Records
---
Amino acid sequence: MKGAAMSSTTMHGTAVTVNELAIAHSRSGARVVQGVTFSLKRGRALGIVGESGSGKTLTCRAILGILPRAFEVADGWVTLNGRNIATFTRKDWNAVRGRTISAVFQDPASYLNPAIRVGKQIEEIFTAQQLLPRREAKQRVLQLFEALQLRDPDYVFQQYRHELSGGMLQRVLIAAAIAQDPQVLIADEATTALDVTVQAEILDLLLDLKQRTALALLVVSHDLAVVAQLCDEVLVMKAGVVVEQGPVDQILRRPQHAYTQLLVSEHSSFGLERFMTAPSAELDHVP
Amino acid sequence: MLKQLLQLRSARLALGLLALVLLLALVGPLVSPYPPLAGSPEILAHPSAKHLLGTDYLGRDVLSRLLSGSPVSVRAAVQVALIALFVGALPGVLSVYLGSVVEWLTLRFVDTLIALPFLLFAVSMTALLGNGITQAMVSVGILLAPANYRVSRAAALSVARSQYVEAAMLSGATLSWIVRKHVWSKVLPPIAITLASTLGHGLVVVASLTFLGIGVRPPEPTWGGILASDLGYLSYRPYAPLFPTCLIMSTVWACNLLADAIRDVSGESGRLLLERVASPTARAAQPPRQP
Amino acid sequence: MSHDTTALLDVREIAVDYRRGTVRKRALHALSLRIQPAQAVAIIGETGSGKTTLARAILGLVKLDRGSVQIGGEHVSRFSARQWLQFRRKGLVQYVFQDPLQSLDPELPVGESIAEPLHVQGKQSATERAAAVARYSQLLALDPSLLHRFPGELSGGQRQRVAIARALITEPRLLVLDEPVSALDAATRVQVLQLLARLRAAGTALLLISHDLGSVASMTDRTLVLYRGTVVEDDATRSVITRPRHAYTRLLVGSAPTLTGGSLSRERRNALRAELSALSDAPYDTEARRLEVE
């Protein structure tokens, strides 16, 4: 891989396996997601593309074990590092969340308490379970901020959530998500609410994390281009089913399903591609 | 709104109770079996066929006293509510539309009122203005006005700053159009709710004041006053306080129930609730969304 | 230039400040812009760039500290409240807000919201209004049964179409749209973009405001790029994309994710960002953020 520095001890194991996952309304039994199958390996990125209602968010929530009460897993199974998550007790989940698997979502501000300074809230990750004393926890948080390219970590630490921009907040939340070095990170529409220049920065960061720490990335977006930029493999979902699945290059070059074709043609007819005769300079797409 | 309210069982119950109390207030004195002030040699009698609720320490029929005391208590509570409405709710809405000076003045005035201790203020007012129920009620009404002010102002403010009002403005709508179409229906429910609970609150204050002997010209019967005198003779009639207490409590409860019901039928969630009430089988989940 | 008198929208050297207490922040610096009839112009800028302020200044929702705005030859920046009211009644200019969930009255059926601008004008009967509502909802592919529903019951895409229908019902000559397609799904986005193209062909001028060049590039003849309250690029859209001059525009164009994986490498983007911060003030413009209205 171009320019990447992968340590020789990096595992290439499978982090998450999903097999024929089906999700249904608890009461009526009506299925809202059906037949989702994929496996996510360490150091790889998998994307799920779909509109609202396609089932992509429910799939993520099922993997994290946080399905809304109205829904339940109706079929199939999910394994996390080889263990079936259906067997997880609350204690198991507490051990796993944040340490093995983590997530960032849309609208970063809503995940932070407006009345507490941001740094203190992230510090809680370490101090809450007495993992580290306060001062060390603060140092760790500052290190994380720096790693996520927040230029003045001390400053950011002291701010309240309303004093930080969307891009900065999302970086803070990614910091929180990777604080305990999880193996899997789910990014569910993590850049949707951000300006396009900021989005590019965040996507760069995620790519960087993937390469440096062999993080397994699950990127969910309604924008095929975001997924194309970051992922090796992609699933296209519509109305709860996977309509197409495969390596990104293949899907983009030869989309089979009508919906995928619509997504691709939308970009070529209305996006910037229309104006660009040839992609300029280097491609940053990791094969 | 009344039509929607009547669809809720809780509202029907509350309104029914309040209508009963109102009836009591209007015709109570007329239907009392004995003159309320007439003493008799049968003091501290237990309930019997002759005196349905017994007699008090002067031999006066308790039922008659309660019935005759109704107009005073109810009227006083209504006075409180009306004052709260005109001194509180109305300026609240106006403060949003009459400019920053009016806004600042009303806000500071209301802040001052909130800072005053309740019963102390009422007591000092009666000391100043004389010992009458109306005087006491005016002061209580003024003290309860700030809550109404804040609530109605908040409701008016959130609407005034909304984007849909801005959108109407951009289409060339006048202020009266905006108020009629967008503001009114959203401001009325919070005001109605606060008013209903102010009514209940006012009643409790009346009862408290008359219990303490303030605002009462003895031997005129009032619910609170009856309760006070009952407490002096508990060893003879230990159940006696129950009667005025039940009366007060159930009226206040009806006021709060009504306030809750108004809140339940207001706004978006109100609409959804009414739909569910209308057809309990259908609409168990959200209506289907089309992409 | 002889253009001056025929321009539909003529914004000249406007400046807008935001004040909160004693703090004063200039949101727009000496900005000029002209739109001809049936022309489509895009204003691209990030959060805090001043793009929404510009739209609000044009619409008269914000006072100008300097400069003037003319619409259809009328000096709207000098209007009194009453003059604005009469001008707005004509329905020449309409605005589509960014978030239809907030710009539609949650307690009015959407059909009534769509009809409101006509209703306010008061020139048509109820039947004529209903016919207009039917016509425009059909144009926006809104099922008639939806007209009785409330905004909370519709999907995001449907709400956006309702907002657009409301803006079109007075047949405006200038339509200002704020992030028109960002909240829509792929199929709806295509529909709306095609509709906007038809409108333009029929003679309506469009002012599209967005943070994402890609979403509106295909629709527009000209693009202005706004950065920290100043226009840093003003050219034909094609030129802005293929030959951007200012560092920010280059960053913008290079950041947009494309199916081929972004046209600029990470290193180039970082270099551009460094170039940008060298050009302007502190990297964290916290004052701007606190005073942001966008």
Note: Confidence is low (pLDDT under 50) at residues 1-11, 278-287 of chain A.
---
Amino acid sequence: MKIEILGMGCVNCNKLYQNVLEAVKQSGKEAEVTKVEDIKKIMSYGLMSTPALVIDGVVKVAGKVPKVEEIKGWIQ
Amino acid sequence: MEEKCLCQPTEILIFPCSGGSNVGQIANETGVKLTQNGMGKFFCLAGIGGHVSGMIESTKAGKMIVAIDGCPVACAKKTLEHAGFNIDEYALVTDLGIEKNHNLNLDPSDVGKVTDFVASLISKRGEL
């Protein structure tokens, strides 16, 4: 599973990154988690707001920071 | 190109139909003018119709959805509703006395008229 956190490095982006790491840890799933801070790459997803969470190429959420439990629901 | 953080949520999302007629293009130009005037942000209706996940999720993050259709076929309204979005403010160009034709040489006064109308809708809602 490939998980990308899209954002240019603000507080919310970092919070989302931490929540994703925690969700992966709690779920026991194997996942490659990467931060994407390049605006051109972010825009390539059609995003108009960040932070955003992309799982296996699909944008799951944008413009807000989902809780750990919500993220676990997407990666189970 | 200036790199601008996208972390501030876009409050007002503007979806013109951008259709292939004078009124569709007046709707499109209205979206451009409103964005340039800081009234909201032009969003991609085609991305909604195409189920582009980034566009869909970005739209969910918005606070107000404004749809502008050129004619009563209402493609912008139908596309947004089909994707499950509720439209907060709606404008129909032909309702403002502008007749539909296929001349794409737009009259700037028509664009100004529609822009003023949609701006007033957005402003009124902002006062609520």
Note: Residues 4 and 34 of chain A are 5 Å apart (CA to CA).
